[in-house]
Amino acid sequence: MEAEPVNVSEFQELARLALPKMYYDFYAGGAEDQHTLEENVKAFQRIFICPRVLIDVSRTDTSTTIMGYKTSAPIMVAPTAMHKLAHPEGEVATARASATANVIMVLSFNSTCTVEEVASSCNAVRFFQLYVYKRREISAFMVQRAERNGFKAIILTVDTPRLGRREPDIKNKMVAPQLKNFEGLISTEMNTDKGSNLEAFASGVLDASLCWKDIGWLKSITSLPVLIKGVLTREDALRALEVGVAGIIVSNHGARQLDYSPATINVLEEVVVAVQGKIPVLFDGGVRRGTDIFKALAIGAQAVMIGRPVIYGLAANGEHGVSRVINMLKDELELTMALSGCCTVKDISRSHSSKVSAQAYYAWMI
Ligand SMILES: Cc1cc2nc3c(=O)[nH]c(=O)nc-3n(C[C@H](O)[C@H](O)[C@H](O)COP(=O)(O)O)c2cc1C
Ligand SMILES: CCCCCCC(=O)C(=O)O
């Protein structure tokens, strides 16, 4: 029997053993050279935590409020596509584990369980991630379904006018299953011998003309708050404020889109400074430890989203595996807070982290 994992990274190997190669590669892979994929994790390792001592930390509390919703920790489940490729219960298992842990789950537009199945599976606070398709009526219909089914926010992904070049998917001729959400609307079946079937599907449906003015359109079709996911620069953060989004997610899509885009933790601060606390800044990419969560919060994120580790937990052991991943991260964060002299999430401040900037790191390398 495999040894029990003691940190979330150890779920990756369990997932590899549990899954067909095509699906494991789909989950684990990044774009092209996978340079950014590696950097997302490594950049965290260059940041140090500056603890305060002689503070009474006999009681610590990781709870926080995200977009007005009280949660047990500044941890959210990132939207990731097609959970049934990892486990037969798919997104329903992920949603139940999120509900039990009292953390917010963001359901992917490309989920394998329907919006209705996820909504009726538990009482968790849920957000809905949106892709805008060329056939905008499909995206509008999905927004309305999410709203009708009690999802509390729309997270528009803005870094995917086209799918990044994922070479493992090309080699494996990755096949997307039929997605029940789109039954009767659009077929996900593709039959190309040339490479990734998922990429062929994506290039047929994704609306590459989506631009800033369309935020107005999206806001006009829903009463839910609209956040954008995939911002990496100060300029785009300022533009996001101008068009009136309710929040920003600093993300490079888990390094699956543009390779050589910066590690997200290296650009978090420039976005936080640009936004000046006017709207929440959330964060994802490479979070594998409670110390990573602490660092992102110290730099100014309100919460972090977890992508691959959740899928690996799901693949390894269904709902229970997802619970383990979330609880491990929560426990590690709580310990980091205690060892740094922070009793609450609000106590975590910029002075608790000494960020080594990317420039300083590369100057040191040369
Ligand atoms: C297998 C996989 C599928 C993903 N699917 C989506 C998706 O459907 N929509 C989306 O906005 N982001 C998607 N993402 C990106 C995640 O939301 C998130 O940005 C990323 O996984 C965070 O990085 P991490 O995996 O290092 O935690 C996906 C990521 C992975 C790994
Ligand atoms: C429109 C189909 C694209 C699905 C890809 C899901 C995704 O975002 C990913 O990173 O994979």
TrEMBL record:
What are its cofactors?
A: FMN
What Pfam families does its record include?
A: FMN_dh
Signal sequence, start to end: none
**List of catalytic residues:** 253
Broad class of the protein's primary localization: other
BP terms from Gene Ontology: defense response to bacterium; hydrogen peroxide biosynthetic process
User: What InterPro entries does the record point to?
Assistant: Aldolase_TIM (IPR013785), Alpha-hydoxy_acid_DH_FMN (IPR012133), FMN-dep_DH (IPR000262), FMN_HAD (IPR037396), FMN_hydac_DH_AS (IPR008259)
Q: Name one GO molecular function term.
A: FMN binding
Quote the EC number: 1.1.3.15
Q: Does the keyword Coiled coil apply?
A: no
Compartments where found: Peroxisome
Q: Which UniProt keywords apply?
A: Flavoprotein, FMN, Oxidoreductase, Peroxisome
FMN hydroxy acid dehydrogenase domain span: 1-358
Q: Give the catalytic activity.
A: a (2S)-2-hydroxycarboxylate + O2 = a 2-oxocarboxylate + H2O2; 2-hydroxyhexanoate + O2 = 2-oxohexanoate + H2O2; 2-hydroxyoctanoate + O2 = 2-oxooctanoate + H2O2
Q: Where does FMN bind?
A: 79-81, 108, 129, 157, 229, 251, 284-288, 307-308
Q: Detail which positions bind glyoxylate.
A: 131, 166, 253, 256
In terms of domain of life, where is this protein from?
Answer: Eukaryota
Q: Which CDD domains match?
A: alpha_hydroxyacid_oxid_FMN
Q: Write down any Gene Ontology CC term.
A: peroxisome
Return the similarity comment.
Belongs to the FMN-dependent alpha-hydroxy acid dehydrogenase family.
The protein's name is (S)-2-hydroxy-acid oxidase
**Species for this entry:** Sesamum angolense
